[in-house]
Design goal:
Largest sheet: 5 strands, mixed
Structural class: alpha/beta
Strand content: 15-25%
Helix content: 40-55%
Mean pLDDT: 83
Strand order of the largest sheet: 4-2-5-12-6
Number of domains: 3
């Protein structure tokens, strides 16, 4: 009887044995089902977030491959920077800076302000360039100094019709009034020499007004670069009152720079330096200076 029961079970019931009696087969099937489910979920998620992956890939591109924007500020300073209402800006340094922006593939426009405002904006706003600015120890930590643009000499200028203003040292000028533009390096230079706005410094908001104060005899001298007064004399001709150099200021900083605000991207600064090197090598830089009679 026992043998018959065993035989019957063996022949007819073995295929109906619960899965728990076959652990290896159960594990294999279970693992395969989990893998298939995970694969299906992954494919669905990949489709849903494909746009996100594309965005991440774009952000991962090198920054230099993207268009960068800058703000460029300056002042009215013929023949370097000239702007007339309703007309496009021009001038030697305007042409050079515009060429630099083009070569460096930077998007930006030149905005004219009174010097004090331009100086303030260039210290406060990110990715901002300023020109033409003299480099001094007092200004050294306030900007990134991209590159020198032009070197020139600085003088005390007086009307030729006033020979009584002849001097041989800056100390002798303290008994007279000197005109400078507000917040310009000339103001700080004079203040370091002991001049004050209360006694012998008259501040103007722009160079045209500075010149007018000299012609109207509101001041005895103005501080001016040689290229500035020679250009003004050339263009105004007979209407320009005769002037002459009263004193050359040999200890005055004489290099004009293109500078950038401290929070300007290093990529922008690098692009500008490479662009400046390129236009020097091509001869374009010198050609612009010669066009404006600033180089032989």
């Amino acid at each position: 009887m026992y043998s018959k029961v065993v035989a019957k079970f063996t022949t007819h019931q073995v295929l109906r044995v619960p899965l728990c009696f076959c652990p290896l087969r159960f594990i294999k099937v279970y693992v395969i089902n989990i893998f298939r489910s995970l694969t299906r979920i992954f494919r669905q998620q990949l489709k849903c977030y494909s746009w996100l992956l594309a965005s991440v890939a774009w952000l991962a591109l090198p920054a230099w491959s993207q268009q960068l924007s800058v703000k460029v500020v300056t002042e009215q300073l013929p023949p370097l920077q000239i702007h007339h209402q309703g007309e496009a800006p021009t001038g030697a340094m305007v042409e050079i800076v515009e060429l630099l922006l083009q070569q460096a593939t930077l998007d930006g426009q030149i905005v004219f302000y009174p010097w004090a405002r331009a100086y303030e904006v260039a210290q406060q706003q990110a990715n901002t360039l300023i020109f033409s600015i003299m480099r001094t120890p007092a200004r050294e930590h306030k900007f990134h100094w991209v590159a020198p643009l032009l070197a020139d000499t600085v003088h005390l200028i007086r009307l030729k019709s006033r020979p009584e203003l002849a001097i041989s040292a800056i100390e002798q000028a303290k008994q007279f009034r000197i005109g400078v533009t507000r917040s310009d390096i000339a103001q700080f230079y004079l203040e370091e020499k002991g001049f004050t706005t209360e006694q012998n410094i008259l501040l103007s908001s722009s160079y045209p007004r500075l010149w007018q104060s000299l012609f109207d005899r509101k001041v005895d001298y103005i501080m001016a670069n040689e290229f500035m007064w020679r250009q003004k004399q050339t263009f105004e001709g007979e209407t320009f009152q005769p002037i002459e150099v009263a004193l050359s200021l040999d200890d005055f900083a004489q290099d004009y720079y293109l500078a950038a605000s401290l929070n300007t991207s290093p990529i922008i600064i690098s692009k500008l330096k490479k662009a400046l090197e390129k236009i020097h090598q091509s001869g374009q830089y010198l050609a612009i200076l010669q066009k404006w009679h600033l180089a032989d």
